[in-house]
Model the fold of this input.
Amino acid sequence: MKTAQVSGNKIVIKEVDDIKLDGRRGAIVRVLGCGLCGSDIVKFREKIVGDGAVLGHEIVAVIDEIDSDTSFKKGDKIVTSHHIPCGECVYCKHGNVSMCEHFKSTNIRPGGFSEKVFVSEEHLKNVAYLVPSDMTDEEISFYEPLGCCVRAIKRCNLIKGDKVLVIGLGSIGLLMGEGIKALGYKVYGCDLIEERIALGNKLGIESYNSLNLDEFDKIIQEKSGGKYGGIDAVFMTSGADKALDVALRVVRKGGKILVFSSTPKNTGYPNNEVYYKELTVLGSYSPSPKDLKDSFDLLTSHRVNVKHLTTIYPLESVQQAFDDTVANKILKAYIKIS
Ligand SMILES: [Zn+2]
Ligand SMILES: [Zn+2]
Done:
């Protein structure tokens, strides 16, 4: 079978032995396609993973071979996530499931950018779903990324009538904006790239250019109710250092800043603003099985529209997909494998 493996500064296609169940519980799946996640790019560029690693985790696949207590059977088209929390450790008990050791150690193997993948029984039981026939593979591949967004939104404990700003309208920012809207909150967006602002508006996220911060702040304050209204929560989906300036300027007193991206300079948290404006700063990383279920429901009920976000690449062009994503030429790559 073919896999796309990290090899130095490149991703190369390697032919490896076909994987089999070999007595393991779970399923061998034939991968139809796999979304390229921002975290794959970070792992590759910052050399968090070494040579031979197969990236990708947002898979849509068909079951080829199965030994399971679940109702899944050979031939079923499924979507699955890659990590499962233990439910019992200090992190799980406090709701920080993505910090759980078991969560971090579980995965689909070798990785999504591969013709075949082993999905364990634990995955099948907790985070895998049958794909409804009215969903395209590219659409349902947003199951895990939208799960990350659902978790972030829940972390903010928003209340009815809350107004939210999403900074950065890349694929994850647009997805976040759509999720916020689908869950019933007013959402604004900002970016520096005009096409992304236009797409935000098209998807129902009231979006603006934030290059001129004074001007942008004025607009957003007027829109969101000014002195006694304002933005209740800011979601930072942009990895640009400047995003923090925008967040601190726009968020209302007592508001929340949700951190959803790494930044190159690790700017740190702004002590005095947090103190004087009584802000809450929250990080949100990866979803729980319940967040994923909510994401699945949002997608399959068509309350979140992901139709305009993907560009399709064949497995042989994974490297190109990485390069185009980094260069902001595309929003979201979907690697079509079979
Ligand atoms: Zn992902
Ligand atoms: Zn745990």
In short: The domain at 149-283 is CATH 3.40.50.720 (Rossmann fold). The pocket of zinc ion (ligand 1) is lined by residues 37, 39, 57-58, 144-145 (CB under 6 Å).
